[in-house]
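tool=predict chain=A
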Amino acid sequence: MVRAYAAHEAGGKLEPFEFDAGTLRPDQVEIDVDYCGICHSDLSMLRNDFQMTSYPFVPGHEVAGKVAAVGTNVKHLSVGQTVGLGWFSESCMTCPQCMSGNHNLCVGAEQTVVGRFGGFADKVRCHAAWAIPLPEGIDPAKAGPLFCGGITVFNPIVQFDVKPTDRVGVIGIGGLGHLAIQFLSRWGCDVVAFTSNESKADEVRGMGARRVVSSRSDDVLDKLAGTLDFLLCTANVPLNWDAYLAALAPKGRLHVVGAVPEPIPVNVFSILIGQKSISATPLGSPETTAKMLEFCDRHDIAPIIEEFPMSKVNEAMEHLEAGKARYRIVLKNDF
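tool=predict ok
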C-alpha cells in the first residue's frame, strides 16, 4: 500500500490516505519519495481552479527520491538510483512530438497530478523516460522544484536560442523568476529583473541580476524602450503589456510561462513594427530536463527553499497560499 496525503473535496484539508498502486507496468518505475516540492499548481489543483481535478486528490509533482523498483522493460535505470519527477509522468513515445524529442508537447501526455495520484506520498510511479537521474552534485532536498519551476524557465532559453550577448528581462521574482535569473546570468546574459517587491532588490542582485526595477513603473519601462532581446514573464497577473512589448528590441520576444488569468490584449502594430513575437511553453522534455540538471550542477544553481515535514503539509500549503514562500517550499517525507 502507498501512504499519501489526499483531499476529498475542492479546497479540502489534506488527510492521511492509502491506496493500492497495483502491478508495476513493464515500462514504469516506482520511486521512493524522499522530498516533494509544492508548486502553486498543486494549490490550484486542490481548489479545482483548472476544472480538471478528481477526488480524492493527492498533489505533488516535484519529486526527488530513489528508484524502488523497475519494470521488466526498463534498462537505463536501476534500483537505488536517485531521480526526479515533474509535471509529466508519461507520454506516448510514438507521436511526431515524442519522436522528435518534444515529449512535453505530446497530446496524450499523462500529468502527474491529473487523474492519478501524485507525490505527496511515500511512493510514486511514472513512465521510465520521465524519471530523470540527478547528477551527484545536485542536493536531492533542493532538486524537486527544478522539475517544475526550473525546467519551465530553462526550456525557453534553449528553445529560442537565447544568446550570452542578449539583454534579458525577467518579470516576477518568485518561485520561477528567482531560478530564471540564476540560469540567465550563468548563461552570460545581461539580466534586468522586474519585481513589484523592491525589498528583494539586494537578494535579486545576488542571484545574478545586474539591474532590479519596478514591474509596475511605466516610467522605468519607457526608459527601457527598444532595449531587451528577450523578456520572460513568470508573473500570473495582468500587466501593461503594450509597455513591455515596447521595451523589446527589434526581433525581440515576450515569452510567457506564468499562468496569466486574463487574455493578453495585443495591438498587431506593437509587434508588427520591429518584427516582435509573443510565445509560451509548457515545461520541457526529458532530454532538456537532463540538460538543465547538468547546467545546475556545473554552475551551482539551486532553488532557495523552505523545508517542511510532509506531516505538516497543510501548514505548508497555507504558507504558500498566504504568499509567504521564499522562494519554493519542499516537503520532506516523514511517513
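The domain at 151-280 is CATH 3.40.50.720 (Rossmann fold). DSSP finds eleven helices and 17 strands in the chain.
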